[in-house]
């Protein structure tokens, strides 16, 4: 890796940032990220559309803060998934339980390899996935992939500022709240103020320890009920 050299952190009387590597991060690839409770696989319309329709149909509320959806039927959802699966940004993953049923979607997006900045977003959790260990485990798997394999230095989480559940989730998962961008977007004909959160590569080692302590088998009792919360392990 190439490091920019600087004699000091100032030019004359003007302070400047610390020198960092100028090597670019890697782009996401169609990998399988496997955990104890399930896995992530590159979104594929042929493999995942039917199961995703079964998981989300009749639950239109889960699309409230998304820029798309809900969909009228399985064909409409399948067409949308096929279009999404062809994109490289966002780069979408299906969230699978261990039998291989698709229960949700998550994406790596707003990808800037030269700045080593990437975002986790477009998270769709079916009711069967919500409040499960797998829903948290996939966040660990993606963060580990982003920091340790792809080499990013900043991992972002953005959501509608009115989405209280997403804001709570970001904090629980170890992201730091950085502020609100007012009138940031127009989504489905409505104003969206956007809340910004981020996790840095320097913070990841502590976050990783917290995730792994929470995910450890001895932290779960019968029916996958946690004994201690993730927050109890997070600084």
Description:
By secondary structure, the protein is α+β, with helices and mostly antiparallel strands. The chain has one domain: Gcn5-related N-acetyltransferase (GNAT) (Aminopeptidase, 3-Layer(aba) Sandwich). Helix content is 27%, strand content 29%. It has five helices and ten strands, in the order ββββααβββαβαββα. The protein has helices at residues 45-56, 74-85, 133-150, 164-172, 204-215; strands spanning 10-11, 14-15, 33-34, 38-42, 91-97, 102-112, 117-125, 154-160, 176-187, 190-200. The strands form two sheets. Strands 3-4-5-6-7-8-10-9 form an eight-stranded mixed beta sheet. Strands 1-2 form a two-stranded antiparallel ribbon. Strand 7 (117-125), helix 3 (133-150) and strand 8 (154-160) form a beta-alpha-beta unit. Helix 3 (133-150) runs antiparallel to helix 5 (204-215). 29% of the residues are buried. The model has no long low-confidence stretch (mean pLDDT 95).
Topology, pairings included?
Elements: E1 10-11, E2 14-15, E3 33-34, E4 38-42, H1 45-56, H2 74-85, E5 91-97, E6 102-112, E7 117-125, H3 133-150, E8 154-160, H4 164-172, E9 176-187, E10 190-200, H5 204-215
Parallel strand pairs: 7-8
Antiparallel strand pairs: 1-2, 3-4, 4-5, 5-6, 6-7, 8-10, 9-10
Helix pairs in contact: 1-2, 3-5
């Amino acid at each position: 890796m190439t490091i920019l050299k600087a004699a000091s952190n100032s030019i004359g009387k003007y302070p400047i940032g610390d020198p960092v590597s100028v090597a670019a991060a890697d782009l996401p690839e169609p990998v399988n990220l496997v955990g104890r409770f399930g896995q992530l696989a590159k979104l594929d319309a042929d493999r995942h559309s039917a199961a995703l329709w079964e998981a989300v149909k009749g639950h239109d509320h889960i699309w409230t803060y998304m820029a798309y959806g809900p969909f009228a039927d399985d064909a409409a959802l399948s067409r949308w998934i096929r279009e999404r699966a062809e994109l490289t940004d966002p780069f979408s993953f299906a969230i699978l339980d261990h039998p291989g049923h698709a229960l949700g979607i998550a994406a790596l997006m707003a990808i800037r390899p030269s700045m080593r900045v990437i975002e986790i977003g477009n998270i769709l959790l079916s009711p069967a996935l919500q409040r499960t260990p797998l829903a948290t485990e996939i966040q660990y798997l993606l963060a580990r992939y982003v920091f340790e394999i792809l080499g990013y230095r900043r991992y972002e989480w953005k959501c509608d500022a009115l989405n209280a559940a997403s804001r709570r989730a970001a904090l629980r998962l170890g992201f730091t709240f950085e502020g609100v961008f007012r009138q940031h977007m127009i989504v489905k004909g409505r104003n969206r103020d956007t809340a910004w959160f981020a996790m840095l590569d320097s913070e990841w080692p502590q976050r990783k320890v917290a995730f792994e302590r929470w995910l450890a088998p001895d932290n779960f009792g019968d029916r996958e009920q946690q004994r201690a919360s993730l927050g109890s392990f997070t600084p």
